[in-house]
Specification:
By secondary structure, the protein is mostly beta strands. It has one domain: Maltoporin, Chain A, CATH 2.40.170.20. It contains one helix and 27 strands. The longest helix is centred in the middle third of the chain and has 4 residues, at 240-243.
Length: 488
């Protein structure tokens, strides 16, 4: 069976933000300063994705051959106008215009073959390869009391980046009655080629080779109890943008990479139980323990910068010392009728990290967190589908920072007409306008708090007219790697 697909999208959005800020200077002109700021943002994005998928039974061997190619072409253009006016320190007033163009591509190929070696087991071999070239050009102009529309060479730059990944994997699975055991091994390669034509010191050429093993087991009973166990050892290399020495300057901050980063390691253990009930639904419990060592995280600190002539914030990736996430999750599904589905998820977990944010200075933090999610779906008159989703997340933490609680509620309706040739939908996002973001930095050298309200309540309407066969709906990967393997 061969299937072809094509997908395209176009998007334009804009925003306007007015704010007032207080800043305390400690050197040169020490004191408290206030400024008003008006920021206008615009973004235009075009996206084209396409692919071909082949699935074929190997009759002589009783196996299956799977092949998939996906390509994505994207171009993203952004515009930002930033006007800052100080109450007293008028020499720092400015109007800045920033324009950027960022065309990207992604091409991925996956080939997989599964072969049974007897009626109780099979082996699985495969290869995945991807190429993702991109380029970016940023131009910023500055206007203040001294100059008009001067190109800011400090914040204008160009970049090209190409990442090639190649993974080869092999796995096996065997069934002993109701018990199934499996294992797999991945060999993952990543090649980076990042270049800044105006700043050779930021170039990155690196190759990483890592191995990730996985084992899993499952057992089912006649009374429809299912038990699962899985363990995976991951090795995660840093990305090219995290390794570069190139520095990107903001107006009161800057960020740079860290060429001394090393691989991060993770050991993930998961246990699961699920019980199914005829014509009613299911209930399940999941317990997990994820331990990380030296994984890459970004820290924000403060330091004196010659470019600014004052103390500003800077961010840089580091290898975190240790981190872990341990928790338990509950999931339930209720199907009172064939045309109604109610799902509830609850997670309770302990989040911990220990990080060296400055040489010889360590910060340790532990937080108990929870999240709740409720999904409702029903179908009326065999035509109209209704849904509602509610999500709540308690206060959580990131590196040297906390994140405020979050609540959202979405709902919508859809229908299929003319033998599913025509589909319509109407969705309402953030019905009650409760989506807010905020948090607090707990870095001893850079304490801060933030809170923002995003107008995320909106209504969307869609219409789809299908021409030709529709069996492959839902199999479009839209630029993402497909997941075919059972033992990964």
């Amino acid at each position: 069976m061969v299937n072809l697909w094509l997908w395209t999208t176009a998007l334009h959005d804009s925003s306007h933000l007015d704010s007032r800020t207080e800043r305390t200077e400690l050197i040169h002109n020490p004191g408290r300063y206030f400024y008003n700021e008006t920021v206008k943002n615009g973004n235009t994005m075009g996206d084209l994705s396409f692919g071909v998928m082949l699935e074929k039974k190997i009759d002589t061997l009783g196996g299956m051959l799977f092949f998939d190619y996906t390509g994505t072409l994207t171009n993203n253009r952004t515009y930002k106008a930033d006007n800052r006016t100080h109450d007293s320190l008028t020499t720092l007033d400015f109007l800045r215009l920033n324009r950027s163009n960022n065309p990207t591509q992604w091409h991925g190929i996956m080939a997989d073959i599964a072969l049974p070696y007897n009626q109780h087991g099979e082996v699985d071999f495969g290869i995945m390869a991807s190429l993702s070239p991109e380029s970016k050009a940023v131009k910023e102009t500055l206007s203040n009391a001294e100059v008009t529309n001067m190109v800011d060479t400090l914040r204008s730059y160009s970049m090209t980046n190409s990442t090639y990944e190649l993974s080869i994997y092999a796995g096996a699975e065997h069934r002993f009655g109701r018990l199934t055991l499996g294992a797999s091994l991945n060999a993952d390669n990543a090649w980076y080629n990042l270049a800044y034509p105006e700043a050779d010191s930021g170039n990155v050429r690196k190759h990483f080779l890592n191995f990730s093993p996985t084992i899993h087991a499952s057992y089912s009973t006649e009374s429809m109890h299912n038990f699962t166990l899985s363990y995976t050892h991951y090795v995660t290399p840093p990305t090219a943008s995290q390794l570069t020495r190139f520095t990107i300057y903001g107006y009161d901050s800057y960020s740079t990479g860290n060429p001394n980063l090393s691989n991060g390691y993770a050991n993930n253990l998961e246990l699961g139980w699920e019980r199914y009930f005829d014509h009613l639904g299911s209930i399940g419990l999941t317990a997990w323990y994820n331990a990380n060592n030296d994984h890459t995280g970004t820290l924000t600190d403060v330091a004196y910068c010659d470019r600014f002539g004052r103390i500003v914030a800077f961010s840089q990736p580091f290898n975190i010392g240790t981190a872990s996430n341990t928790g338990i999750g509950l999931n339930t599904t209720l199907r009172p009728t064939d045309f109604m589905n109610i799902r509830f998820y609850a997670n309770l977990y302990d989040d911990y990290y220990r990080v060296q944010y400055r040489p010889g200075h360590w910060q340790e933090s532990e937080m108990l967190c929870y999240s709740l999610r409720l999904n409702f779906w029903t179908k009326l008159w065999d035509k109209l589908q209704l849904f509602a989703n509610a999500t709540y997340r308690s206060r959580t933490q990131t590196l040297l920072a906390t994140v405020d609680p979050y609540f959202s509620f979405d709902c919508g309706a859809s229908t299929d007409l003319f033998d599913r040739r025509l589909s319509l939908f109407l969705n309402v996002n953030d019905l009650f306008g409760t989506v807010r973001t905020g948090g607090e930095s707990i870095n001893p050298y850079n304490p801060s708090t933030s809170e923002s309200t995003l107008t995320s309540r909106y209504i969307s309407f869609g219409l789809t007219w299908r021409i030709g066969r529709t069996e492959m709906e839902g199999q479009q990967t839209h630029g993402k790697k497909p997941s075919r393997k059972k033992t990964r």
